[in-house]
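Predict structure. Chain length: 87.
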Amino acid sequence: MIGGMWLTVQIVGSLLVLVAFVAVQADRMRTDAWSYLWLNATGSLLMAVDAVVEGDWGFLLLEGTWAVVSFWGLIAKSRGRATGAGH
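Prediction complete.
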């Protein structure tokens, strides 16, 4: 059961990041939008937690960094600072 739960966490996290990516590529979302930042932050955080549980350190480096940068963007946006090019 535990393995199935973490597989679900992986899939949900991946889908959140992919939805943001596809939306930007389709010009449906801007990279400085709250929704883009939240989708990336939440999805990458879920995958980083899964990487810790699974002991997948390379994946943790990728997703942990992605989560930190995404949350950094959220904090910057909440303080009224630019978060990127805005696509």
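Summary: The two ends are 41 Å apart (CA to CA).
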